[in-house]
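Progress against Task 2.4 (sequence-to-structure conversion) is shown through the following example record, which the project officer requested during the mid-term review.
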Amino acid sequence: MRSKKIFLNILVWMFFILHGTIFLSLLPLWEGFDEWLHYSYIAYLSRTGKIPDQTSPSVPEEIFESLKIIPGSLENNHMEYKTFWELPEKLLTDKLHAIASLKNDDRSPLTISNWQSQHPPLYYRLFSPIYKIYNNSNLVHTVIILRWISIILVSLGFLPLYYLFRIFFSPLESTLGLLFFTIYPSTFILFGHLTNDALAFPLFSSLILLCFLQLKNGISRIHSILIGCSLGLGIITKLYFLTATIPITFIYLVSFISYKHERKLILINFLILIIIACSLSMPWFYHNWHTYGTWNSTFHATIIKDINFLDKFNFLTKVNWKNFFISNKIGLLWAGNWSFVSFPSFIYKCFSCLLLAISLIFSFKLIHCPLDKNKNDFLLVLFSISFLFGLMHHQLQIRTAGTMDSMGGWYWSILLPNHILIYMISLKFITKKYFQLFLFSTVVLTYLLTLWGQFNFLLPYYSGYFEKEVLSHHLINKYPFLTALQRISSLNGISNHGILFFIVMEILLFNTILFFLWTQMKRKIIFNNIEPTS
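Structure tokens generated for the chain above:
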């Protein structure tokens, strides 16, 4: 039985890689959020061995020049994909040839500055040696390869995630939770392109698991050391790891209050955690202070570093919080990459109702159950609330700096397993013995929604058959599917037969996983219904 469970989880992991491979194959060059700047960071670090700053030229010329060729970019006057594919045949052929001819050049001059240099360097240091292998190689192929390695990196989070799900649910239900995460619409909107969130995900998943183990088993030295390592490495990957300090402090504070005879040990373990996290992250904070005059290297924080606290506080009333929450809600479900291709509005309205229902059910469960039996549930909420406050603080910085007025909610994908757990707990609370059936149905419907978005919205948009405005008002868009794949393959340099093969294999693998899951569910139902005989 144990070997069957391991085999099934391996199938889900393989499905994750395959599903991500299809997404990265359909995603045109630089269509992911700020992907060209993440790639430039890797290239600069590989070429110079130094971390870029926000003012010095650090974007290689070939990357900047590529923006003048590809559709959708600012340097190409935001040319729509539809306009691109309707260019005269000779001009279109020349454009596609120019994209295919792009090469990495380790001797090209560095042009504009890279505002993504605000990010800590760990992810980029990991990818720098891989980029060096592809010096003077095809640029588009290098991006595709690095995207795929990023997806492998994300998949490392599956192991801590499975054990996190097991704290709450049975092996079968935990596998369904992992599959739910894999096929959720926004998963590869974030993780399907080059982004440092790819490294942040397995680190954050490990951190959350370790926190729950501390809460479940009591404060231990080894877990304190591992939490310190995860937090420290996380901070030099993404600054949003700082939001995790609130739930971490909560765990140690609860233990400090509850176990009076172990207070000294708890305090020592907490100090060890802080020392390890600080020793790993302090060099980055020192770099920021030395370079920008502030510990926080985010682009907006460096702009407003000389504004006093009261003036920043006054901007609270100037932020359009309604737009902030709407954009975060959209990002929770599906943000459609840099072009922000979206589902029809009724999908988001239904999703809002679902979020409201889950919130009410989960709140009811928290209120009506004793705290000692609800500690795990409360910790899930605390991670989400802390992350929300972090995003709100970042939004305030953005508004104070005078740049954008609302930000994308795609960052929430890092806590997607957290929210899947909240959904599963709420669903089990109201469905009782029919929980597995409802969860199974949710997974199937979610996968269909994801396929609908991928092949009925993104693909026809990228292949130039529909504009965003047309897509958002039509439920079914008829277009030549194979021709659309051919166009994308010519843009990304991937065989359309290869993409089609991956799509067929994905559907077959998904149905195979469903078959095994359904078989196990039926066995459990039959076993539970067997009457004991005398």
